[in-house]
Amino acid sequence: MIDYTKNSIDWLQSAEKVNSDGTTADLKGKYVMQPGAPTYGDYSHMRWENPPLGINGEGRVTPLVGVIQTVGTVIGPDGKTITWNRVAKTADGYDAIELAPLNPHTTSKASRDYSDCHGNQVAMGYGLDGGIYDAEPQTPRFADVVTVDAENVSHFTHAQISAIKELHGDFIQLLDTEGKQVQTIDSHWPGSMPLTTAQRDRLARSGTCMACH
Question: What is the pLDDT of residues 21-55, one digit of tens each?
């Protein structure tokens, strides 16, 4: 959350500021200020136990993990909400939340179990349960008494999980059911991408015993 009713330190400009006696902004604590202050940040929704696979900038298959997956809220100078729980879009139309290649510190000669990759929807990039889990993040979630029509009984209930506008699905989903990329993959290396169709087909193992057993 960025709140423009408050100010915060401009660390870039402050680093360039040198006082007449040669001291810096850090020494005397006289920083260059800027409008807008980060007032809230919640590092949540971390899933490391079964990361999706993708292609890194060197063309190698690698695990992908969430790096900067920002859902933003902006409060204007007048205290009114400008945007709430919004996921930005890239020029290519992807959700501007990023999964990036990772070389884990736990790398070893032992590979993941066969079933951790083959027949695994997450590993192929389709998200949790093939994108079914949290498929409608635009809808707020309540944990309260509801009617048979799923309407809240209480008028004072609050959403346990707030709606996130325009999010494609869950945070580790790379591809929709048609194989279309839905979020950014490592913007620092242009060659990074999801697994190819051929690679996903080999992982799917459809029509084989492994597909069920």
Answer: 888 888 888 899 999 998 877 666 556 678 899 99
> Residue 52's CB: how many other CB atoms inside 10 A?
25
Helix (H, G, I), strand (E, B) or coil at 116: helix
Residue with tokens 């807008």: 36
Helix (H) or strand (E) holding 121: helix 121-124
**Amino acid found at 154:** S
- Cβ–Cβ < 8 Å for 35, 76: no
Q: Beta strands 72-75 and 81-86: pairing type?
A: antiparallel
Q: How far is CA 83 from the centre of its chain?
A: 18
Categorize the per-residue pLDDT at 212 as very low, low, confident or very high, splitting at 50, 70 and 90: low
Greater confidence, 164 or 67?
164
